[in-house]
Amino acid sequence: MSGEDVTLSAGQVTVSAILAGTVAVSSGSGWTETGRPLAKAMPEWTGKPLDRVVLPLLLDGWPDGSVQTAVDTLMGLMRRPAKAATPPVVVCRGPRLPFDAARQWVVESVEWGDGQLFTVDGRLARQDVTVTLMESPDDEPTVVKVRGNPTTRRIILAAPGDTLERVARRELGSPKRVGVLRALNPGVRPGRPIKAGTVVVVP
Predict the structure, then answer these.
(1) Domain residue spans in the chain?
(2) What torsion, rounded to 10 degrees, do the Cα atoms 131, 55, 135, 195 define?
(3) Which architecture, in CATH terms, is 6-27+47-135?
């Protein structure tokens, strides 16, 4: 894919796309006005709402590629995997984005447009999509206990073919550390393939 303007990343999973329009950012102040009988309205702090970003994107693999993997990945980022406490945390980067690249988001919605292009053999080569990101409510790293030691938790998405042992080798440096992952992911059984896109908590 050429002309990539935006990347959405969650752990080892990345989707690249072309920015196809203006990015809309909505950010509330957290202040509202409370009406009072026979008196001027009084400002009241109700808490800052979560920011949202609307990204008009184009997935483009034309003329000889396919964007089906990117389509499937976006759908996976929108779903909250079974038994997961939080949806996948996404980082969005690109030179023309009006927000800090270090900010963390979750995918709130994915709306597929009518702009599709297929190759002669039936592969989806181009697809327009609008992705709405919501500010992650968990901006600060969560501290959990693993064998008595405080450890900063990270959330990744399982890649195709992953097992807890493979994740331990890749993320922790040794498959022998699978016990740490078992403690953080009680719903994932060791030695068995993990469905691609499943949230895995790692220290």
Answers:
(1) 6-27+47-135, 143-202
(2) 30
(3) Beta Barrel (2.40)
Distance in angstroms (rounded) separating the CA atoms of residues 119 and 13: 25
pTM > 0.70: no
Average pLDDT for 82-103: 78
> pLDDT per residue over 114-125, tens digit each?
888 888 888 888
Burial class (CB in 10 A: 0-12, 13-18, 19+), 188: buried
The CATH T-level fold of domain 143-202 is Membrane-bound Lytic Murein Transglycosylase D; Chain A (3.10.350)
Other Cβ atoms closer than 10 A to 198: 20
User: SS3 sequence, 54-122?
Assistant: EEEEEEECCCCCCCHHHHHHHHHHHCCCCCCCCCCCEEEECCCCCCCCCCEEEEEEEEEEEEEEECCCC
| Cβ–Cβ < 8 Å for 181, 202 | yes
Q: Give the integer Cα–Cα distance in Å for 5 and 150.
A: 38
Token pair for 133: 């990101």
Phi then psi for residue 75, to 5 deg, are: -65, -40
